[in-house]
């Protein structure tokens, strides 16, 4: 479960425009280095959880444990706080919170990975590859397109809230995610976060052009990495769920 703000928040100064070229290229490299670094941390956290007795604390005889829900909602709160306070933190502090959130996410998705390992371990690789290809295509589209994607913002935000509500309901009534309805939810989840990738990329490109100084650029890079990380991991989770549906 993941939440992100509907827009990239900046402190714009229209009188200070940056030039395109090397500056924005380095800025994007910083974003993707942080984002894929967080993905790698999530993978390592998941592997460490599955490879040690740590995974047992996530379960009880009747299902998921209280520890699991503490980590889940703790990570959710951390991601919201990090986004709201993104321009109040030093970039190093923001990056630290990004990687802490990545660790929590890696632990929280362990039950889903265990199901995949039991059913068909290859679905993990398939979901990752498909997510990576979709992410790359949508990120490139968002960066290159001249069409204004801002109109999608409110619809994507509403869709994300709907997915969260369905996810919360599934904790109470697990059967709700069974059958056709669960399949439709997974498809919608993949679509929403794929579109979020394009939307965020366009916002990040535009926001860069109105940033006032290097500190703000670095702060925005961390925030952008968090947004893109959330989209990538969410796509992976929904695809993995889709591939392991009975």
Q: Which labels suit this protein?
A:
2% strand; 246 residues; 8 helices; single chain; mainly alpha; two-stranded antiparallel sheet
What can you see in these coordinates?
- By secondary structure, this protein is mainly alpha-helical.
- It has one domain.
- It is built from eight helices and two strands; from the N terminus they run αββααααααα.
- It has helices spanning 22-51, 66-84, 91-108, 110-119, 122-144, 153-172, 179-208, 214-243; strands at 59-60, 63-64.
- A hairpin with a 2-residue loop joins strand 1 and strand 2 (63-64).
- Helix 3 packs parallel to helix 8 (214-243) and helix 6 (153-172) runs antiparallel to helix 7.
- It is globular.
- The model is unreliable at 9-21 (pLDDT under 50).
Put simply, the count of helices is: 8
Biggest sheet: strand arrangement: 1-2
Q: How much is the average pLDDT?
A: 87
Q: Count of DSSP E strands?
A: 2
SSE order in H/E notation?
HEEHHHHHHH
What's the quick description here?
By secondary structure, this protein is mainly alpha-helical. Helix content is 73%, strand content 2%. A two-stranded antiparallel sheet has the order 1-2.
Topology record:
Blueprint: H1 22-51, E1 59-60, E2 63-64, H2 66-84, H3 91-108, H4 110-119, H5 122-144, H6 153-172, H7 179-208, H8 214-243
Antiparallel strand pairs: 1-2
Helix pairs in contact: 1-3, 1-8, 2-3, 3-8, 5-7, 5-8, 6-7, 7-8
